[in-house]
Amino acid sequence: MLSTSSLYAYLFWNTVSLISNQTDTAIEADIEDLSQRFKEGGIPSLARRVAVLSRDPRLSIYLLIDPEGRPMAGNLNKIPDMKDAGEDWQEFEFVRITNNFEEKHAARAKTFTLPQGFFLLVGRDVEEFHKFSAVILNAMIYGLGMTILFGLVGGVIISRNFTRRIDSINRTSSDIMAGDLSRRIPVTGSGDEIDRLGINLNKMLSRIESLMDGMRDVTDNIAHDLRSPINRIRNRLEVTLMKPATTEDYKKVIQETIEEADELLAVFNALLSVAQLEAGARDIQKEMLDVVDIIKQAVEFMEPAGEEIGARFDLDLPETPFFTKAARPLLSQALINLIDNAFKYGHSDEQIISVGLTKLNNMFIIYVADNGPGIPPSDMSRVTERFVRLDASRNRPGSGLGLSLVSAIAQRHGGKLRLQQNFPQGLKAEIVLPLDT
Ligand SMILES: Nc1ncnc2c1ncn2[C@@H]1O[C@H](COP(=O)(O)OP(=O)(O)OP(=O)(O)O)[C@@H](O)[C@H]1O
Ligand SMILES: [Mg+2]
Question: Whose C-alpha lies nearest to ligand 1, atom 31?
């Protein structure tokens, strides 16, 4: 507001002083002209010149008075009442006759007393200029008034809007604190600061919500799926205690219990890994590694177990190394889980497990395929959930966490696990990863 006012004041002052300077310069030029005449031909020449100039009906004002006080030439008939306007300038009012009307006009002039008592006045009618200044001043005051008015109204509207939106953020936060994590802050789509704040808060809320969901899942899993093995262990120990038994019997039961506890620990570890990977809570150490090499190592590691059940590997790997950044232990674990599944569920007359690497533009796919019965399409998406095991494979050992872990590992690397029907039969599990160099 202050800056607008000073801008207006500056504009006004500049315009007015520009015009008034022009008037003053014009008068000075006249004086220059007249003094030249006076120098050349004295009073008579000056008087003639004044008479000529006075005929011009423009805004110039002249008056030459003789020592007796009689007007000799000029367009005023007597010396007016003058006010000192600083630096030799005088201001006065005079009557001008335009279109038969008498009008009082303001004027500005310089006066000179010449030798022998002659008196000369040279000036300009500044009435128009005064009117003009008044108009400009009016316009500026009006403009300033409008600016202030609009500024105030705009300010009130903006601050109302601002308060309303902050209020809605506050209301949403209260709801969320009261326990409704699904609430989100309304976003107008205008892209301003408050909107961006809302979008970021909403993203944060979504993240918190998914972490909470993950936690709830893990708690549910522990409640449902880990309770029964622990109960089983407990019951067996109780039964053993109740009936008479030899040291050998005790040893056997303790041995079994240790094995079961180990399995349970393994499940806990797997569950924890999946949960941590999914929540992004675990920092994974990526290093530059050769995927071809990792695949070969995993196959080598699993080969003896494969030989036992008569499974054969069919590798399709590039001749040259294929480098990308990944977490070595996680990638190996994922491969081993897939190969383990192929062993367990891919049984057929001639069990062949195809493992390979396909390169795409900025992606690559590691696949493990078997020629077993495969997974029915309706169960495809379900098997990657935690603890999901299909009825057909209940008689096999396992806890249903293998594919969950593979999926979590792929996602943590920015990719995904994709399950497909293998041709002509079996399951083809693909780890699709972005190339990271
Ligand atoms: N290659 C496959 N062919 C047919 N069914 C499969 C195959 N791989 C997985 N499945 C089905 O998907 C289920 C889930 O597999 P997942 O690896 O997650 O668990 P699991 O093998 O049962 O247990 P874990 O891997 O924890 O020891 C399996 O129980 C099985 O029913
Ligand atoms: Mg498995």
Answer: 390
The answer to whether residues 352 and 220 belong to one domain is no
Whether pTM > 0.70 for this model: the answer is no
State which residues form the domain around 358. Answer: 287-434
Q: Is the CB of 400 under 6 A from ligand 1?
A: yes
420 Rama class: left (phi>0) / alpha (psi -120 to 50) / beta: beta
Q: 89 with 60, same domain?
A: yes
The DSSP string of 130-156 is: HHHHHHHHHHHHHHHHHHHHHHHHHHH
Supply the mean pLDDT for the chain.
Answer: 88
Any ligand 1 atom below 6 A from CB of 356: no
- 172 in any annotated domain: no
Overall number of domains in the chain: 3
Q: Which atom of ligand 1 is nearest to the CA of 372?
A: 3
Torsion, Cα 19 24 27 29, to 10 degrees, reads -100
Are 348 and 427 contacting, i.e. CB atoms less than 8 angstroms apart? Answer: no
Together in a domain, 335 and 358: yes
Asked whether residue 230 falls in the same domain as residue 303, the answer is no
Token pair 């089983």: residue: 232
Greater confidence (410 vs 210) lies with 410
- Judge if 243 and 354 occupy the same domain: no
Do 237 and 261 lie in one domain? The reply is: yes
Question: For residue 383, which ligand has an atom nearest its CA?
Answer: 1
Query: What's the 238 CA to ligand 1 centre distance in angstroms?
Result: 33
Mutate to test the pocket of ligand 1, among 393, 409, 419, 422 (most ligand atoms within 8 A of CB): 393
Smallest CA-to-CA distance from 302 within 200, 294, 5 is with: 294
419 CB burial (10 A radius; 0-12, 13-18, 19+): buried
Q: Give the number of whichever ligand sits closest to the CA of residue 426.
A: 1
pLDDT digits (tens, 9 = 90+) for 425-434: 999 999 999 9
CA of 348 to the centre of ligand 2 (A): 17
User: Which residues, 6 or more positions from 186, have their beta carbon under 8 angstroms from its beta carbon?
Assistant: 168, 172, 198
The closest ligand to the CA of 404 turns out to be 1
Contact residues for 60 (Cβ-Cβ < 8 A; gap 6+): 30, 53, 54, 75, 122, 123, 124, 125
Cross-strand pairs, 94: 105
| CATH at 399 | 3.30.565.10
> Are 301 and 425 within one domain?
yes
Q: Which range, of 75-84, 194-203, 397-406, averages the lowest pLDDT?
A: 75-84
In a domain, 328, yes or no: yes
Q: How far is the CA of 429 from the centre of ligand 2 (A)?
A: 12
Q: Is 402 near ligand 1, meaning CB less than 6 Å away?
A: yes
